Amino acid sequence: MDLHGIDLNLLVAFDALMQERSVTKAGIRIGRTQPAMSAALSRLRALFQDELFVRGVDGLQPTPRAVDLAGPLQQALTEIQRTLSFTQSFEPGTARLIVTLGLSDHPAFVLLPQLVRRLQDIAPGITLQVRNFSARDDAVDMLDSGAADVTIGVPPASAGRILNQPLFEERFVCILRKGHPAAAETLDLDTFLTLGHLLVSPENDRFGHVDTALAKQGLKRRLALTLPHMYAAPLLVAQSDMIATLMAGVVKASGRESELQLLEPPVELAPVPFVMSWHRRNDAHPAQRWFRETIAALPVADASPK
Asked: Tens digits of per-residue pLDDT, 219-236?
């Protein structure tokens, strides 16, 4: 039998007729009129080349062919219903799946421990696979290729197919080692420019947010060191006379706060936003939606210095 010619509604009608043994009652059961059910029965008879149901004293009586069909067709309809219901809901407590999360370094420190604990508590059957990225546009490539279901980092390049949700912001602070001659209550711009600067650049640039702000004033700082690893910066500053301008949360997460003097930058710097991104094709999937909602609900501790 060619499955392309089978209307699923006919199988639903057959199951209702088998349950009700009445064209009228079967129509009420599935929300169809009596003429529509009669037409469906005619099509079923033609499809299976059998009468299927004949009139008896107590209503319609199934033929042996109908009896043979009843069990397998009811099981098939049940499986179809279960499959369609699964696509509309998600039960984290019983789910068994792998979810891939792309993370830049800082969100890995700020959010990942909390996310792992949360998944262990409410969705122990979910396997979390984490992939690292540094350049912001790598997130788009990962989402396009399916290498990641969700990414968290600074906002990637604008693309209509990539959806974003803000998660948190980080403000900048300047750090010097405790006891540094310039580690006063406030840091003035002249002193700031005389110091050797450590620049963190995951993309290996020699021009960062501070340089952009200084360039607007026709000024330039002296770079003593550039490196791509932001969490190495607090230790390097604590053991040198360099200054670094870092996100406050990085300093806090580094565990080196007690060795450092935290100061307000002498130039105005906008905070760094971090967003969760995902591909539009995953937007409506129940498991993906639940995963994103779980991430968005994670608390982000205040990383700003007191």
From this structure: 999 999 999 889 999 999
